[in-house]
Design a protein that fits this description.
8 helices, mainly alpha, binds heme C
Length: 153
């Protein structure tokens, strides 16, 4: 009886999982995260990169293509992530999602683009965020930013 019950339960769980649309509306996310993400999604879905270094304008194209496969590009465009550490961690998280089709080389280019973009377009938020960090961590993040921006001078 008990085994049957477990089997039935497993079937129900699998049926529900299969019925879910393959969208980025993730039921496993808590309400606060869900609300935060929805706000990002509603914002602009493009970045004016006309003043960015040429190479980073190319990487913007890669970012636009790879990071709009499961949700609108507006999600990362309006994200409150600004630190290299946040982008590094999140790009990895997205990369390991099934079907992401993001290679290690892609991830590095997208990382450079997002770190550079945060240092320009989100400079105010980035500076404010850096101020909240303990000195050692702040120095580490500032060095990581410099490492990227100095490549594209
Ligand atoms: C395979 C599908 C997929 C791809 C490709 C993808 N994402 Fe996502 N993304 C998701 C899902 C699902 C979520 C919901 C939150 C989670 O699972 O982390 C999400 C959430 C996000 C968030 C919001 C996180 C938060 O909590 O504030 C950001 C920012 C983001 N993605 C950036 C990116 C970037 C940058 C790329 C390209 C490197 C990318 N995504 C590519 C599926 C994807």
């Amino acid at each position: 009886m008990r085994v049957h019950y477990r089997f039935a339960l497993a079937c129900v769980v699998m049926a529900v999982a299969a019925a879910l649309p393959a969208s980025a509306a993730d039921a496993s996310l808590d309400a606060a995260t869900q609300a935060r993400i929805e706000k990002f999604d509603k914002g602009p879905a493009t970045i004016n990169v006309s003043s960015y270094p040429d190479k980073l304008q190319d990487y913007y194209q890669l970012f636009s293509q790879k990071c709009s496969q499961c949700h609108r590009l507006s999600r990362p465009v309006n994200s409150d992530y600004v630190l290299p550490e946040q982008w590094g961690r999140y790009i990895k998280r997205m990369m390991y999602k099934p079907g992401s089709n993001i290679s290690g080389a892609d991830a590095k280019k997208i990382y450079d683009f997002l770190v550079y973009d945060s240092s320009v377009r989100k400079k105010k938020a980035l500076d404010a965020k850096l101020q909240t960090l303990p000195p050692e961590e702040r120095t580490k993040q500032q060095q990581a930013i410099k490492e990227v921006t100095s490549k594209y001078k």
